[in-house]
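Researcher: Good morning. I'm working through a list of sequences from a screen, and I'd like to move beyond sequence-only analysis. For each chain I'm collecting a predicted structure so we can compare shapes side by side. This is the next one on the list. No need for commentary yet; just the structure.
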Amino acid sequence: MYTQKKRNAKSSKIFGVHQGCILSPFLFCFFINELAAQIKEYCTDGIQLHPDIVKIFLLLFADDVVLFFSTIKGLQNLIDQLELYCSNCKLQVNTEKTKVLVFKKGNKLSSREKWFFNSQPLKIVTSYKYLGVTFTGRLTWNYHTSNAAMQAKKILMGILHSLKIFTDLPYKTFFKIFDTKITPILLYGAEVWGHTEYSIELVHLYACKRFLGVKNSTSSVMVYGECGRVPLYIFQHIGILKYWFKILKMPIDRLPRKCYNMMLLYEKHGSRNWVYDVKSLLNDCGYGYVWRNQCVPNNPDSFLISLRQRLKDIYLQKWASHVLSSEKSNYNKLFKTTISPEYYLFDINFKRFRISLAQFRCSSHRLRIEVGRHRNIDRELRICEQCDLNVIEDEFHFLLVCPKYDHLRRKYIDLPGYVHPTIQRFTTIMSTTDKDTLKNLSMFIYHAMLIRI
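Model: Good morning. Structure tokens for this chain:
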């Protein structure tokens, strides 16, 4: 069980010291230390950190006091001690900000699960945010990550709205803003919950798709490939390992180290907890020996760089496998073989041309091959309606074959490319890194889409 108490600003004025005075933190520490000593003296039981005999009753951070106990009566006793201490020291507790959170498997509370402070009932909640992390009664992280994703997307939308004053934003600037302003919100506390992928990745994908200008239904694999981005879970895993190294360096009397030892003991008896996730992460990446040694590598920074690259390589294999097996990537897999930002994202300065090329490469367009897929039309029936050739209107036909756009090809594409159209020529054009060719290609696609009926 868990309850949090917040003191109001009046407590800093007992000795005539106003809020903001340099004496305030010293006086507050005096009060807090006295409270901790009193609870330790009058409370005989608490939450034991196995295999140690240490029992803890409260957590202190700034002006927040967290009391917890494993029984209803025990928690009320802690609250009574807090009430007595505050009464003796002429302190006030803001009961409106004081909440009780019960951790249990079921959602329904019994009639006996009630707690009072100064004869006033305390509100029982199903979730509570403490130090930026939202805890729920069932100890799941879905609620916290959903809130983080919602908050991050709200800020992202505000940033995108503010950036409308610019005609366009360079690739590096756009993702620098995302990694600086949005990613920290999404990954807050990931050292603890980051073993699992949650809804935060949707915000990352949304930002990538907004930059490319593609539809929300566009394949995530294609979006990652075009932008040269990898899922955020890679950075979650790196954060977990960094925190694990930090715990291993802690003295044995630190509470995080004691909690780690307790989870290590439970993991050895079959429990699936945070320690189990660390062990699985290292084993899956081929670093099981680091786990078995239970010590920080000689050069942790070098190890983390190696681990990050290993995680990226593992994802690259999954990405390549998905591209090769996807029907939607029939042409994309011919010219996109690795995860790296494409040259046109840097070289094409006009946003509308860059977006047209991005949509064409990612199959986020209005050609029959794509529209028919959404309408469940058989592939062989997705015939081009712009010409009389009676062939499927796909990317190859649109770029090099369809007679309707011959005048644009003569203007923007080299003669051999469309006079003798082949898959090889198509791949060569789409794979080009030449700046002028990329600009001409993007302008052809833009203008051809405009005249397409």
